[in-house]
């Protein structure tokens, strides 16, 4: 039965996330935007709180690790599930309504944790429990073209030796481990790309520097080098086989799960702008009427309606992608659709809200200008707008990557 | 200065010669007044040479001379569906046997809420959609181009729609319809599936159902007993739900059409536009202001004071859009459909917008399916044009926005089915379907280049049809 409301059983969780965002993240939002690279110590308490609640099962498996595909036999395949994937995107959106950068800085909730959840085997999952994992894909020479990366991993006895340089590693300084993408054999292309978990105390790993950024300044973004960095063979995530048929699938499967999460971040960040702007407009005497034709309302109200409609579309695409994951349907196409729509809507909404609010929105006195800076990265990382369009186009048109480059 | 218009009822041969010359002169002069005629803004002025050129041009239009005097009465109906500015009386009405009491009628129950996010239609909905999809692909799509050209829906298309029970879709089972619960979701899926065949034909086929659904939702026992049996029988009346009016910045909550209380009944005056198959319609639901609040009235064709004028428009031509002129139309107290505090009317506006959203999604899907194949086949520079990102990304964006439109529409529809407030959801769906739907129509033509501009391909029709979505009020209802 078609229903696109927030699942009833997750309403309480989302409400809790909203309260956390309002009462713990918002009060320190501007502070850490200004104090870039300073560790937000308040988050340790918050993470402990979240871990505690997770233990009770009350979060429904939500969080960075909530994206793991459930492989246990289905008792009733006809039953529609609202599980950890939906709970995760909805609670991440709430937290990013509070502050996107602080959500990204949340201990033990890194994108690397989502990668582990996506591709690690059961034994690894157990072994990595409690780790805070960053994600290292991008290199100075490659961005979107991640199949062409230069970091190498060479088998040497029971170990792999990793060499290369990674940039734009979110939480790369603060996390206690890094999920690194490296190739086992450059000649074999994307099939040879594997991900490895590297502990931060590994002597071959060095954090070179932290970036100064346009937005999400509370989140540390590191450049990391790997020099003859030795990791045990069992820290290769998933299967070590180079399967040229399934190709990139292993490591890439991460993206099917992390893209809806990044969409969720854009949706949360944009809703913060919408909520405040609506309030400021109402104080200025502009109310949004849902029945009256937009062209009969003042321009600001008509613009707001357009923004809200685009936002709602992005939100529902995100929920669709997560719902499909919960119900074990392949969702690469829908995950990319959600990321593409949410990424561009995030920018349009946050920038337009600054425009609607004038110098009030532009000033650091409000958070609108910050959200307009934070949102930009969400249309870039985990696959840019253009990469998402490429994926959607190939799927829809049935074209290979050599046909549609 | 108001020029008299040609009307069907003054077509008496005796006075024809004199009257026609006068009318021709007056309408000619009035056509030269500034303000909108021939696409001129009121800021334009004509100098003496301009008037002379306009007069010569007018005389050169032989079909006008042809119209004065030579047209036979029998040709009038055909003529009036393809040319505007020509009024005739509404179709001869059928007689409905009055029955029932003036108490609240049957009301469909709200669907239950399970509280689970789900994009799977129910079994009943799936079965219905399967049937309608086939109808759309096998009958609607092949008939679409000719129907667009003729400004009329072929009888066999309408008969098939009737046969699968479309008019009874919104009618409760207890009244002979096919729905056990509120049908907004089913109606949305059906409208989407039909519009994938053709939007104009879908509107023509769904129009009687709109009136039946309105009777099912807001009718009194008497209204339901009197009219609904005809809609669930074998000879379904042509019927039209009319809200729109031909004014700029039209607002359905500030209508120009009025209903004045007159004894027990009402007197209606005004002009309605986007009236589906107006010349054939036997029953109208007319929106008019009553004591400053919009309300709905049932008006049977043939009632004195009703005139219909063909109003062929940019698209939706198969729906034979018309204007309905109401001049001192007298109806009884039993004609009021729904309440007088605007609650039923507001819901009607929202459900109608929802139906238009569903139509936009269906036509958008038609565009996507069509351009997908075209860009994969069309060769340029030695390879399919789909191998170019500028082309492929347009297709990707069509797919992304279309799915967003669909999800927003479904959300509003499912809320309506459960009896929840859906004002916000339908407003957002309408906003997105209007804006992105038009974008899809525009890009659909662009992707075919010059081939998209000619009628050999359906994309130019979809372009014209999709423009309607953000404009239309009334006509269809889920």
TrEMBL record, chain A:
Pfam families: Acyl-CoA_dh_1, Acyl-CoA_dh_M. Residues 134-229 form the Acyl-CoA oxidase/dehydrogenase middle domain. Residues 59-81 are annotated as: Disordered. Keywords: FAD, Flavoprotein, Oxidoreductase. GO terms for molecular function: acyl-CoA dehydrogenase activity; flavin adenine dinucleotide binding. The keyword Oxidoreductase applies. Its cofactor is FAD. The keyword Transferase does not apply. This is Acyl-CoA dehydrogenase. It comes from Nocardioides zhouii.
